[in-house]
Amino acid sequence: MTKQNVSDPKSGVNSTMYGAAVAMQPPAPPGSYINISRKTLVETNGGPRINSWVDSMRASSPTHHMSTFLSEDKTSWMVHHPSALDMFEDIISASKGKQIVMFLDYDGTLSPIVDDPDQAFMSDAMRGTVRKLARYFPTAIVSGRCRDKVYSFVQLAELYYAGSHGMDIEGPSKGSKYKKGAQAVLFQPASEFLPMIDEVYKELLDKTKSTEGVRVEDNKFCVSVHFRCVDEKKWGELALQVRSVLKEYPKLRLSQGRKVLEIRPIIKWDKGKALEFLLQSLGYASCADAFPIYIGDDRTDEDAFKVLRERGQGFGILVSKTPKDTHASYSLQEPSEVMTFLRRLVVWKRLSFKRHPKIHKQLEG
Ligand SMILES: O=P(O)(O)OC[C@H]1O[C@H](O[C@H]2O[C@H](CO)[C@@H](O)[C@H](O)[C@H]2O)[C@H](O)[C@@H](O)[C@@H]1O
Questions:
Q1: The Cα angle at residue 196 between residues 223 and 260, in degrees rounded to 5
Q2: Between 163 and which of 13, 168, 198, 269 could a Cys-Cys bridge form, CB atoms 3.0 to 4.6 Å apart?
Q3: Residue 107 known to be catalytic
Q4: By alpha-carbon position, which residue is closest to atom 6 of ligand 1?
């Protein structure tokens, strides 16, 4: 899959671009992701670059089924990103002697993707599984959504939450029961951008109101413009509307998720930084102690997968039915497989506690 490192001298933002974000590039291959650079954002006025926006919008959430991929592509994908269920024993043995710390994305990982973002509920079975998981492992939800919103879906007070793509982090009110010295957490590195984000949210609402099916979501430190329900013929029009707002805001950047344009501050903070921050807050700054497992389905989760690869610590697991360009080590196909994987972790831990009942009692208490 095509992949380019792009440095924008204007904003100083370096972004990895996959596929068609640069003008006149061929369309991105299925399954790749795009960050639209500020250059593309501000230096053009319609024409071919809007076409590349539309290409990248198309590539952000491919509809291709696994059966449409060449068999060598599928084989190569499964060799390089095998199922985390098939590799469960290997994952466990790699974690030996370390505390597993769980990081879970929300949409597309714990809840299925649906048309209406307000209806993306997780099942009671998934909630029960995550509750049990958090009994045995420090667990954080890391989401692009506003923290309050994702909390209202998950409803588990014992978890850590990182909302707005990691720009709004809060720990459980009672603190961590896993590690002495874990700090109480509330961290909002983009708070100075709140008035700007609020302004942009309102402008985007106004500017896009004529486009049927568009949905603008206020995620507190970032804004999502959903085009899942917008007719594909209108994507160019929507791209123009969004660009006309954003060109006035050099301190904001645009990236893409699954049928969504994500607008956020250009600060160097993302889900990967949030993961590192949470590990440190939990008292696991040293790689020797902790084994992080991050499960996510989206472009923004790649920042966290990349951090784990670079640190050589733990693993990333990509939730996807189709081959994608990813820094994750393993794959799971859909939220139901995520639930199975989490349940196996719980069962494995319970069994190991049976062999060490004293530790079990301490944790349960
Ligand atoms: O980091 P996440 O928890 O995965 O959040 C990323 C975005 O997720 C939501 O949008 C996605 O899910 C919606 C509901 O299934 C779907 O309609 C939409 O097309 C997807 O992009 C959420 O609404 C966004 O605000 C998040 O940024």
A1: 15
A2: 168
A3: no
A4: 144
Q: How far is the CA of 126 from the centre of ligand 1 (A)?
A: 18
Ligand 1 atom with the smallest distance to the CA of 114 is 15
Q: Report CA-CA distances (Å) from 362 to 177, 192, 283, 353, 355.
A: 9, 42, 18, 11, 14
Predicted-complex ipTM score:
0.99
Using the mean position of ligand 1's atoms as its centre, give its distance from the Cα of residue 115 in Å: 10
For the stretch 229-287, pLDDT in tens is 999 999 999 999 999 999 999 999 998 899 999 999 999 999 999 999 999 988 887 77
In sequence order, what are the beta bridge partners of 252? 265
Q: Over 60: is that where the pLDDT of 41 sits?
A: no
- Average pLDDT of span 349-355: 84
The dihedral through the CA atoms of 238, 243, 259, 57 has a sign that is positive
Q: Which of 105, 107, 168, 298 is an active site residue?
A: 105
How far apart, in whole angstroms, are the C-alpha atoms of residue 48 and residue 215? 25
Residue 188 CB-density burial (10 A; 0-12 exposed, 13-18 middle, 19+ buried):
middle
